């Protein structure tokens, strides 16, 4: 038994991690590694699995390095990843959400890549907000897996049936049109927001908050969400009224996760929705959605007196563990892997970035990819063109709540937003609760 | 010397030591040590995302808990959930035991059916009921609509007033069988003469139940109450699968709070302190139930 | 053969002392009965001899060997239990063979021994049955068989006949007696039944409260009980005990009742308890003390008649008289009592005077 | 019976039938619905109103589970599209059968070791009068008072320090901590019900404690032993929280973990999840029904004594 004091120190984490991999690699079928150029242990969540696998096949062929790939459902991913990191599991590369960056860096779970020019050079090709989303305290911690933003989507057929010809440009108009659709008995809840208390909730409410011209946290890091004029209060009140006053948003929204919302939108049950942009591919896929072909994207409506067309953008990226970076051979393999997936492959192409976009619809951070004819064709085929998406992308802002205490704060925040949806708390009070927690955690962070 | 040692530890004691040793060894490593270690952790401000600091804070974590609104909220949710689960489980179990204690054709088949929920993994239990409660495709909506109890589909788990009860229902479904089994076993031990005597004394069915069955069930009931309380108070699987503490804070129980504190906020110190509070509460509660019922037997 | 010596044998359970510094020497081939009411410590003593209970204090010897700390399976004792204690999952044959098998006796020898024993006990036809298919008497024979098959030098019997009905008990009693004579082994027999004790024992140790009250031959115990407890425990119906004192004239006095005692037995004025066995009365005759009493109940037993009488001083007594005496309820009679057959005990210490 | 008037007998029959029907509806209904759902296609299962019974029995989901081999995916063989709106086999589908074996392995090890450990300890506590007997008993039982969730973190660290993270061994050891106290409790109750004289006879006949255990207590407590085996296996089969934390790779994950992954990952087809649920139910239910007799008599000693 180790002395009690040691298990949690970073030094031990690193030391342990160096010995454990060999042991565990043997358990998880690492025998192939003996004859080849070694193994990269990569974990991701269960998304674009076939694309990842296809790329892995290509990577293994090109480099003779094996990839030990595991994936977990998104809902379990963070917990699983953290447990593995704490448990000294032999992870080389992992998908990371931008929201976890400061927390993971502070915990010593991510290694920066500033001293790896082989990876840093891709910044030249990357959208600036993507790069900025991977930087914490002046250091960059990875290469982008994809970058996306929240889009305002509508169902052309339902609008037509209601005789609506002009798209809403403000959330007030969204309410008016929704009421019209509702009164005509076309659908019961024309507006869809997926407000289940999962990892997506903060993304949805942040998008709405930006559209209402508000913020969660100001540039100085102070919580302003409860501020009546520049906070999230207006967005919160909008949700509350949409559910309770106008009844255009289902009270079941609190139980609707992102995917279930997607299903409902795809089955033509809603006229308007906020949806991650990349989902447009699924929504317009006849094999998946009965409303396929009728879902289009408009610019995010402005909300309230200070409304903007802004939306929320986020990125997910490939991060390397310090354990991998500390070991020369592992580091070398991990870097090759990250480059092959987050940058260009050995043939000099952004093959993974393009694959993700044209197969799944995941927008790339690599600007050259967007010039690709296939990509243009993709947007034309699935979204009726890429102009609005490109325009909206320029208006995307990253979450202003990203901080080392994000993981803890978001629990409180989620509950506060849900309380608003359920009518259990006034928007002001709920946002004050969230703000107070932010302030408390920020103060406690030394 | 050997004789003196022999005198101190005779054959019996030496044998007992050898026989008990493996269990004690295993439990020391996987139960006693973690329990004590958990206590040590609860005295430190250990946050996993801040691996370099780990100050000793003594009872501060405990004080923090008691000053934490979430804790008291979780206590009230847990209390409601536990009371509902235990009471409904026990009442249903008594009814089922009465039914299955009768002799009738098919009784053996029903007894076998009774074991199905008990053997069902809690994860499957959770997904099964979640599927039944599903707002769009669920059985519950279809059933109630058909019977005319509701006019339109509802998001059952999304209703904060119902969530806790619906989860409790899933828990009851799984736990009731074991409770019923224990009660049936206890009932079988009631001498027939007691019923015959009560019949001769002119007691009707209900009076026989109240005056003969119920008092004789006391030991079984006590076991059921203690056991059900101890496991209900710490239920976690169902909450993770079905609601994740939501909607809002509607199913925010202590176990869930501990999970969130430990594995999402990664505050091992306060998480461990909360665990200890829950452990103490469980212990005191079982003790109280035993004392309370024990006195009345 | 083995002699058993208990020296200051003590058993305590927490603060309760079950057996208190018991000294007992049992000779080679002796049939020793431990007699007493339940809770007197007789079974605990037996268990300590068997090794089934650890000895808290004192020494136990088989012949010269100190076996105080020897576990039972090392002690070469056999035991028969009130509940028979046959292994329900084994057949009769397996039950009897079990102790031999544990001693790794060759198979042929085991078979021979089992056949031999079952012959002796007339259970040969039951060998392939399970205990649940046997009657009580048969079970106890099997239990005896399991005990004797090992030819041990010490037999321990814990109320072996108590679960049997009266008739069986008698025949088993003689069976055990025969066994003892044939085997020439040391027997320690625990019972609360005085008749068993009297008929079987070479010597009886009467126990109460963890202490031996009296250790003597059956006759000695019966005719010279060491104290009122022993006196009243043996005999059926029990001895009559009357509290009183010694009058100035040396006679026993209780109210109006006066009884002659052997001269000079006890100093006058002493508080005593008088013991009179029911059968120790006769027709009035010279040399006998006479006792006037009124008959309140007559219970014929066939060979004899039991009487309940009230003597002067409202002293109720039970007496046993020959059936030839024609006695009727309400008669007043005079009985003759041999003073030498009266027992006197100190009222305080209850000890024989 | 024959002599009693007819009316009460009919009344009783009607009452029994009524309550039996209610009972079956509540106890078996949900599982029946799960099974029914697992035998439908995704389209049938998402019909509104739902199909109570499968329009036609379709084993496609089970087929998919049994044949969900890990296939080699290349650019050419990849499936396009975002498998977001369900109807898709989850990417972990191929893990289901291996996890089934993991569950089985862990369950059998736990059942066996649990019995081995518990039997000796229960014998000692129930039969031998030794110093520290009560203390041992209470200590063993007290370890179950602490909620599992409280043990997760320290246990995780212990298991990590033992180098057992992501091994089935970690689960076996952990589950023993859960099952052993309960089994000891059951076995003590049962052992105490075995006549003391049998023990004394065995000791006199020449058995040491091992012998008495082997020749007397084990053969006579078969129901309790089988019940303990069943309890331990089911506990292990059903356990979720510890497995969630202690095993994070496919090689060591048990069935509940893989299934919970499907449930949380709602890209998965509903019918597939239901089929996975049915597969997870079959072994424990079979075992429980098969050993029903033993379970009841195994419980008897404990329940009646209180």
From TrEMBL, chain A:
PROSITE patterns: TAT
Organism of provenance: Falsiroseomonas stagni DSM 19981
Family: Belongs to the bacterial solute-binding protein 1 family.
Keywords for the protein's UniProt record, in alphabetical order: Sugar transport, Transport
Main location: periplasm
Subcellular location: Periplasm
The keyword Disulfide bond is assigned to this record: no
Protein name in UniProt: Multiple sugar transport system substrate-binding protein
Pfam families given in the database record: SBP_bac_1
InterPro entries with a match to the protein in the record: Bact_solute-bd_prot1, SBP, TAT_signal
GO CC annotations on file: periplasmic space
TrEMBL record, chain B:
Domain ABC transmembrane type-1, first and last residues per copy: 75-289
PANTHER family, sorted: BLR7065 PROTEIN, SPERMIDINE_PUTRESCINE TRANSPORT SYSTEM PERMEASE PROTEIN
InterPro entries: MetI-like, MetI-like_sf
Main location: membrane
Biological processes annotated in GO: transmembrane transport
Pfam families: BPD_transp_1
Compartment(s) of residence: Cell membrane
GO CC annotation, single: plasma membrane
Protein name: Multiple sugar transport system permease protein
Topology of this chain in the membrane: Multi-pass membrane protein
Domain of life: Bacteria
TrEMBL record, chain C:
Keyword hit for tRNA-binding: no
A single MF term (Gene Ontology): ABC-type transporter activity
SUPFAM superfamilies the record matches: MOP-like (SSF50331), P-loop containing nucleoside triphosphate hydrolases (SSF52540)
Domain ABC transporter: 4-234
UniProt entry keywords in alphabetical sequence: ATP-binding, Cell membrane, Membrane, Nucleotide-binding, Translocase, Transport
Signal sequence residues: none
Record-linked Gene3D superfamilies: 2.40.50.100, Nucleic acid-binding proteins (2.40.50.140), P-loop containing nucleotide triphosphate hydrolases (3.40.50.300)
InterPro entries reported for this sequence: AAA+_ATPase (IPR003593), ABC_transporter-like_ATP-bd (IPR003439), ABC_transporter-like_CS (IPR017871), ABC_transpr_MalK-like (IPR015855), ABC_transpr_MalK/UgpC-like (IPR047641), Mo/tungstate-bd_C_term_dom (IPR008995), NA-bd_OB-fold (IPR012340), OB_MalK-like (IPR040582)
GO biological process: carbohydrate transport
GO cellular component, one term: ATP-binding cassette (ABC) transporter complex, substrate-binding subunit-containing
Keyword Membrane: yes
Membership in a protein family: Belongs to the ABC transporter superfamily.
PANTHER family named among the record's database cross-references: MALTODEXTRIN IMPORT ATP-BINDING PROTEIN MSMX, TREHALOSE IMPORT ATP-BINDING PROTEIN SUGC
Designated name of the protein: Carbohydrate ABC transporter ATP-binding protein, CUT1 family (TC 3.A.1.1.-)
Protein source organism: Falsiroseomonas stagni DSM 19981
Automatic annotation (TrEMBL), chain D:
Topology term for the membrane: Multi-pass membrane protein
Gene3D superfamilies in the record: MetI-like
SUPFAM superfamilies xrefs: MetI-like (SSF161098)
Family matches, as InterPro entries: BP-dep_ABC_trans_perm (IPR050901), MetI-like (IPR000515), MetI-like_sf (IPR035906)
Transport listed as a keyword: yes
Principal subcellular localisation of the protein: membrane
Biological process according to GO: transmembrane transport
Transmembrane regions: 106-128, 135-159, 165-191, 212-234, 240-263, 270-291
Subcellular location: Cell membrane
Keyword Glycoprotein applies: no
GO CC term (a single one): plasma membrane
Top-rank taxon: Bacteria
Keyword vocabulary terms for this entry: Cell membrane, Membrane, Transmembrane, Transmembrane helix, Transport
Domain ABC transmembrane type-1 residues, every copy: 100-291
Family named by the database record: Belongs to the binding-protein-dependent transport system permease family.
PANTHER family: INNER MEMBRANE ABC TRANSPORTER PERMEASE PROTEIN YCJP, MALTOSE TRANSPORT SYSTEM PERMEASE-RELATED
Protein's name in the database: Carbohydrate ABC transporter membrane protein 2, CUT1 family (TC 3.A.1.1.-)
